[in-house]
Amino acid sequence: MGASSEPLAIDAKNTIHADVAVIGGGVIGHGIAWEAKRSGRSVVVIDDAPGSGASWAAAGMLAPVSELHYQEEDLLEFMLDASARWPAFAAGLTEASGTDPGYITTPTLAVGADAADRRALMDLRSVQQASGLSVEPLTVRGARQREPLLSPGIACALDTPADHQVDPRLLVACLQAALAQGTDDGGGNRDKGAGRGTAAAGVVGGFAVAARATGLLWRGGAVAGVRLADGGTVLAAETVVANGLHAAALEGLPPGLNLPLRPVHGDILRLAVPRHLQPLVTSTVRGLVRGVPVYIVPRRDGTVVIGATQREDALSGTDAVSAGGVYQLLRDAQVLVPAVAELELLEFTARARPATPDNAPLLGRVPAPLAAADGEHGYLSGLIIATGFFRHGVLLTPAAAAVCRDLFDGREDPRWAVFSPGRFSPRAGARLTTGSPTNHFRHTSPTKETA
Amino acid sequence: MGASSEPLAIDAKNTIHADVAVIGGGVIGHGIAWEAKRSGRSVVVIDDAPGSGASWAAAGMLAPVSELHYQEEDLLEFMLDASARWPAFAAGLTEASGTDPGYITTPTLAVGADAADRRALMDLRSVQQASGLSVEPLTVRGARQREPLLSPGIACALDTPADHQVDPRLLVACLQAALAQGTDDGGGNRDKGAGRGTAAAGVVGGFAVAARATGLLWRGGAVAGVRLADGGTVLAAETVVANGLHAAALEGLPPGLNLPLRPVHGDILRLAVPRHLQPLVTSTVRGLVRGVPVYIVPRRDGTVVIGATQREDALSGTDAVSAGGVYQLLRDAQVLVPAVAELELLEFTARARPATPDNAPLLGRVPAPLAAADGEHGYLSGLIIATGFFRHGVLLTPAAAAVCRDLFDGREDPRWAVFSPGRFSPRAGARLTTGSPTNHFRHTSPTKETA
């Protein structure tokens, strides 16, 4: 399917009609929505506080190499795919939005604080090298020539030129601007049918804000759209569930579908570098300090981001910042770059990231055994799940968007079938064990969707 | 002078008439204003951001005993006088405002982290005892029976029952409410002449906000009021300069008057105690951790305040928070109470406190040699200085207010003459050296003011 059959419109019953409804306005949801729009589809993003979830706290490291973890080879492949998409994604977004998402290709330095940290980083390097990734040891002297404010006491430094960064807050703003382009312009644009409805306050053009999704809407055994908290509805050929941790709480999820999302809280700091210390660092510095990761990400505006803890404890609320977490970040960042003590603390933020049991996303259509109908195609019609991106949401945004666009078009890249959102659901598992899960997914005909 | 001759009013020329004009809406300014109002005077507080300066960051410890420093006996006497005034001041304020300033008489525990800290606290105790102050050593076991979350690793704990606390933000709000009482009530109150003027936006009753003072207004060799940034003026029999660090920047200060105020920045944290850790502590815990002071002040609402650094370095702005300062506070607070790591960080704040070369306030009238007129009384008419309260502004508020009320009434307590605002001014110094400064002040007749 190349062109849309459904111009965005709101009818008299406060029902919004669109080709694609995206529940969740973080980086993932916005990225998918923009990709849908670029493919000629009308799209609505549904979120009562877009950009304020995990995306708001994210540091924006695009770091497939540094983020490699043992036994996560599938995820590595997906991260490398995403990384390769970033230059064109950022360029297209800058052109479409007229603004800059802060995409920078400065390298990353992996730094170990002591001998044990050095061993851990060198062990990881052998896995990185086995995967064909470039990670080159520097002498401490060499590292400090590049980054004079690095502590002379560090145990090792490794150059990781392929790991870059983007500013997630700017990214969401850019995606919002790109989604708003060409809407409400009265110039015969195909989105011009859209308007502001009582039911979905804040819907403008192909892009909605300030609406909260309560659940999925079903018609004839397929998902047909979204119910809104204010009583309105969105009717869409494709509904994408991209609201992070809140996905599992939606009403009307396919029976038997288990979305085992758990919150992993992260504290993050933003600091201003006084003029006499600028630039504090030119590379992103990713440290291992007595086994605990910490990173310092320099922004173009003279600020740095220091992050991030990973806490599975909950304080009073999901956005509560841990005093111990802030202490640990400041302590460990100073081990790597002592001048951190001289910075101005601007902000502390905590958000919960949606993690899964295998640290990989829940991305794709839902296998039909979990649903009542459309079993002939192997998948439930009208629904795509895109959550569980844990620490990788920003990096994976272009790849998740590409996956969804393929699914909209009736295609499927078999490499990403391992991320099936049904993989933790017993009824799906029963079916999958009759053959190799990979083969099952690779040989199933994708659903041909008509919007 | 017991009653006012000047009902508060604004004339056609955007001039406000009041008995007392107070420049500066922190705890000191508001405290003096309320005392003036209680004495039957009309009063205007001039501040474009009341309560947002050093008062906003203050922890509110009322701690004359713990705050004793070597060689500051005059200041100790003044702090003890202030401490003795607090119960009646708080009670009167609660009655007048109908709200609670958070005045609590829970004791303070002085805690030393290591052997050197213990020696320092025990040495200080001998001075405190010589001054008749009660500071009683506890065993570590005894201290932990009182405060179970104290670290077992502390070196000593001393009970300081006379050191209490108030909540400075509530205090400012209470003082504002007390000042607003009886105004704009249309009930024949003597303040009813007041109204809202174009020149001084936000003047309500006897209490003004959102106006900025640019300088003093002189008439016939005496100070007669205040010039406002918007072109308006306040005419007052008495003008009190209580705007902290900004005092020295006022235009029209008496020639030769040197107000040697310097900013001492302080970082302070506010944290929420999770339910299972409440109360974190019941006493205020004042620690010395490897020679550096840190305190934990428990509030009734389940939060604690941790402070405060003392930095004479400036970051990018006067309210910039130091990353190193926050780190130090969290580190040292955890040495005393390890569970601090489990708290939720709610807020970090930094403000600059107005310090003087001898750490004592600049409080009183300005000696006449510095001014052109009114030398017969020994003081310049119409002007009182009340700044330089450094770390003691909240504690000293009732005492500073009492000093000002005495000055309004033509009286002077000779004990506080040592805080003369002229003591750092060479021209005043020249005169003062002809006799004992103390005697000079004690034998000079106070100016009899008529408003």
Brief overview:
The structure is a homodimer of 451-residue chains. With 451 residues, the first copy, chain A, is of the alpha+beta class. Chain A has ten helices and 21 strands.
Features:
homodimer; 451 residues; alpha+beta; eight-stranded mixed sheet; 10 helices; 21 strands; 27% helix; disordered N terminus; disordered C terminus
Would you write up a description of this structure?
The structure is a homodimer of 451-residue chains. Chain A is α+β, with helices and mostly antiparallel strands. Chain A has helices at 27-38, 54-57, 73-97, 115-130, 140-146, 168-180, 323-336, 393-408, 426-432, 437-443, and strands at 9-10, 15-23, 43-46, 61-62, 108-112, 136-138, 156-160, 164-165, 203-204, 207-208, 213-219, 222-228, 233-241, 262-272, 284-289, 292-298, 303-307, 321-322, 344-355, 362-364, 383-387. In chain A, strands 1, 2, 3, 11, 12, 13, 20 and 21 form an eight-stranded mixed sheet that branches. In chain A, helix 3 packs across helix 6 (168-180) and helix 3 (73-97) packs across helix 8 (393-408). The longest helix of chain A has 25 residues, at 73-97. The first copy, chain A, is globular, with a radius of gyration of 22 Å. Strand 18 of chain A pairs antiparallel with strand 19 (344-355) of chain B, so a sheet runs across the interface.
